[in-house]
Amino acid sequence: MRKFIAGLVMGTALITTPLAAQADTPKNALVMAFAIDDIITLDPAQIFEFSGAEYAGNTYDRLIGFDNDDVSKIYGVLAESWDVSEDGKTFTFKMRDGVEFASGNDLTAEDAAFSLQRVILLDQSPAFILGQFGLTPDNVKEKIRATDESTLVMELDKPYAPSFVLYCLTAGVGAVIDKEEVLAHEVDGDLGHEWLKTNYAGSGPFKLNKWTAGQSLSLTANEDYWDGAPEMKRVIIRNVKEAASQQLLLEKGDIDIARNLEADQLASIKGDDDIKLMSKGKGALWYLGLSQKNEYLSNPKVREALKYLVDYTGISETILAGRSQIHQAFLPEGFLGAYNENPYSLNIEKAKELLAEAGLPDGFSVTMDTRNTTAIMAMAQSIQATWAQAGINLEIIPGDGKQTLTKYRARQHDIYIGRWGPDYQDPHTNASTFAWNPDNSDDATAKPLAWRNSWDAGPLTAETDAATLERDDAKRAAMYVDLQKKVLESGPFVVMFQETEIASMRKNVNNFVLGPSFDNNYYRFVTKD
């Protein structure tokens, strides 16, 4: 085991002393153990994974931000102020003066326009966040433009609720990248995409040092950051998927923060005076995605039966102890219009009745793609056991985060167990993925979760669109409650839990920030006693 630990922590420029002699991590470095095997890319126009989003949130500045403790408070980051036209379709942003990229290039409205345009032109997974405002590759350079060095104009196709637009710009697609630096690495008109997958062109408090896929991610402080340089000069993140290994590293002082401790480990460290815990309710949801290409899962009676075959209470109280609450609708608590009724519970007999009605009294066989981390595998095994009681043979197919996500995004799964985090703090963020699917063909441009699971959402797509134009909050909230009830009844999802994130850290670590979303977990304020 000692040799294993050495392999995790050695090899960074900061840690050079023999492990046996090491009592603490360097005072000016933050060292974390974190399951980051889901990182696929470092390009903000493509990032759509939890760990990648956290990376971008600490390395790139966005146009707009919000208060982590009160998300209704929106403020400017790179956009210092903004105005909305009388017809509600044109947003004009004034950019903050004096900001430089890590390259030394000045950050201007032209960089901001290029960054937003590039999201649409590349058309990667998160592009729909901006595309929903009528922006296309054909019109985006006309609709998003810099009128001078400090003025950015964004024209929309409809008079959307202003908060909806601004919340979308708090998402990763609102990150501003260095146009000159990125285009210097352009190949065959790719807008620097291949280069930026593994490189950096931002203005944030940290900049990329090195990413080794499946192994580690290291950052260095941006000493010239416009809002003050971080005290931590390095951030080193080791990809450690085993919770027990994270616990051991934390107890030995070889890391400052363990990010993925499970119930057993959290209980074990509770009385350790050298360790403290921080928790934060997140918008992330644990759910099952049921492919409607599967002959069994496309039967509505089967989908309903599966919702009665999850031991919600047992999983929440044991596997996810302290790190979740039962929640079965697609909008998390804390969002406008959240629906907090949980109509399903484990009921084997009810599930058997529904399977019989579906013409499957003896059950069926099906597969589930599962990221092979401790908690997810344990949840999958619990589900496998309860489904077996109703005659369903569930084969678990384990893989790392990249493997399972790639397969899921290609609609090549039967069932996928995963978690979904909101991209911004407006209810449309989840409605537009769970209840919206304008084109269910394999070559569709928009690929929300409904599309990934091959579900034609029918009239719910138009109802979801209509909710973005309602400016009366009470009426808008009622529209989202109605959408959630309909998806609960007929959708291809088994939503199970809302996540609570827990960071376990050494007692000398201060001011680590957990936010409501994973891209709002911040390293820049960390200090050590």
Care to describe what's here?
The structure is a single chain. With 529 residues, the protein is α+β, with helices and mostly antiparallel strands. It has 19 helices and 19 strands. It has three domains: 23-59 and 204-274 and 507-528, Periplasmic binding protein-like II (D-Maltodextrin-Binding Protein, domain 2, 3-Layer(aba) Sandwich); 60-180, Dipeptide-binding Protein, Domain 1 (Dipeptide-binding Protein, domain 1), CATH 3.90.76; 281-500, Dipeptide-binding Protein, domain 3. It is 30% helix and 22% strand. The strands form four sheets. Strands 1, 8, 9, 10, 11, 12, 13, 14, 15, 16 and 17 form an eleven-stranded mixed β-sheet that branches. Strands 4-5-7-6 form a four-stranded antiparallel β-sheet. Strand 4 (79-84) and strand 5 form a beta hairpin. Helix 11 packs antiparallel against helix 13 (348-357).
Fold topology:
Elements: H1 2-9, E1 29-34, H2 50-59, E2 64-67, E3 70-76, E4 79-84, E5 90-95, H3 109-122, H4 128-131, H5 140-143, E6 144-148, E7 151-155, H6 162-169, H7 179-183, H8 193-196, E8 206-212, E9 216-221, E10 234-239, H9 243-252, E11 257-258, H10 263-269, E12 275-290, H11 300-307, H12 312-319, E13 324-326, H13 348-357, E14 365-371, H14 374-388, E15 393-399, H15 401-409, E16 415-420, H16 428-434, H17 449-452, H18 460-467, H19 473-490, E17 493-506, E18 509-510, E19 527-528
Parallel strand pairs: 1-10, 1-11, 14-15, 14-16
Antiparallel strand pairs: 2-3, 4-5, 5-7, 6-7, 8-9, 9-10, 11-17, 12-16, 12-17, 13-17, 18-19
Helix pairs in contact: 11-13, 18-19
